[in-house]
Structures are given as structure tokens and as C-alpha cells.
Amino acid sequence: MSDRLPHWLAAALHQPGAGHGRLVAARLAADGLVTEGMLGKGGLRLTSAAFADGEALDPSFTADEEDSVAPPLEWTAPPSGSHEVVLIVEDPHAPGDKPFCHWAVWGMPGQKGKLLEGEAPPRVGKNAFGNSEWLLPDPPTGAAPHDYVFQLFALDLPLVLMPGASREELVEAIRGHVTSMALLTGTYARAEGGDYDLEDEDEDDE
Are 98 and 205 in contact (CB under 8 A)? Predict the structure, then answer.
């Protein structure tokens, strides 16, 4: 397991491994910018009506089906004083040196909220392919199930990033401003079809 993944964070993840140490949450923890006390602080929880933590994503949210969309999500109120919540979804099992960013979302008020199935968020940044949208899970055929880690961060200030910002720009914007966070993991194994094309990955991501 990666040295960047503290025990308290590993305990909150589904079957954590070395790749999980590359998640945004792990990077911030390694830098001392998120701590054990921030996990679920103020009762913050992230859930989905479509899957429970550690359960498989329905194919309707993946590349296995046409017209697939992002799954529904719901979160409880963050701690008092939170101005905004940010969502970053990453696959720590993807090949390469970086976790695969499937969604980077911000601009949501620092209060109880939700995203309906397929709903367009207020502001969306670039995914690993450089597109501002939900990147459909498409792990290699025959591979073990990949994790898709939904990381919700409550912030003590509103962000001024414009839509289309890179994942790295978003990470830099939230550094030092996280007041609470919540995690939710969905899994998926590709039934049939293509693999990741890493040549299309956004060069700005890390």
C-alpha cells in the first residue's frame, strides 16, 4: 500500500491498494491538508440511490450501454461555515502513473444537496480525456473490477474557477480550504468492449 495512504483513509476505502494512494484525498492527506477528523466531520455523508458503498455500478452509468449518464448522488449538510462542495471521481486501478479522473465538479452550495441521475452540475472540469463531462467507466475487458472513488470536499470559500479547468487546477484551488470530506466507492468490471486509450489522457492531469 502506498505511503501516501494513511490507515484512517485506507479504512474508509473499498479494498484499498497502492493505486489509492494517488487519489486526491490521499494527496491532500499526505500533505497534512486533510486529516482523520475531517472525514465525515459535521455528519457529512455522500450516498447514491443507485449503489451502496463498495457495490457495483449499473451498466447504465458506464460505457457498456448507450445513452449512459452519471449516477445520482446525495449528500448531507457539511459543517457550518462551508461555502461550497466539490466532487472528484477517480479510478485508482487505471494503468499509468496517475489515477484516472472521471469527473471534476464544483460550484455547488455548501449545504445539503444532490445531483440527479444525468443532471448537469453547475461547473465541470476536464476529465482524464480532456472533456468536461462524466467519463464513462470502461475498464479493460477481463480485468478485475475497478474502483470509482467519489470524493466530496466541503470548502471554507467559494471557488472562482471557470468551467473546463483541469483536475490539477481544481486540486490546487481546494488545497488548504477543505473543512470536511466524504467518500463513496462504486465498482465496475467491463463485460465486453474497449480499453482505456491513455494517449488521449489530458496532459495537465496528475
Answer: yes
| Residue labelled with grid coordinates 493505486 | 19
Cell numbers describing residue 56: 457495483
**Average pLDDT per consecutive 10 residues, the chain (206 residues; last block may be shorter):** 77 92 95 96 97 97 94 97 97 86 97 97 97 95 93 97 96 98 96 48 42
* Start-end of H helices in 23-141: 24-30
Contact between 102 and 175 (Cβ < 8 Å) = no
Place of cell 448537469: 120
Q: Which three cell numbers stand for residue 82?
A: 462551508
**In angstroms, rounded to a whole number, what is the distance separating the alpha carbons of residues 7 and 22?**
15
Whether residue 70 contacts residue 134, with contact meaning beta carbons closer than 8 Å, is answered with yes
Q: How far apart are CA 21 and CA 92, in angstroms?
A: 8
Beta bridge pairs of residue 146 = 188
Q: How far is CA 29 from the centre of its chain?
A: 15
Distance CA 155, CA 178 (A): 5
DSSP string over 55-121:
PBPPGGGSTTSTT--PPPEEE----TT--EEEEEEEETTSSSSSPEEEEEEEEEESSSEEE-TTPPP
Q: Give me the architecture of the 35-194 domain, per CATH.
A: Alpha-Beta Complex (3.90)
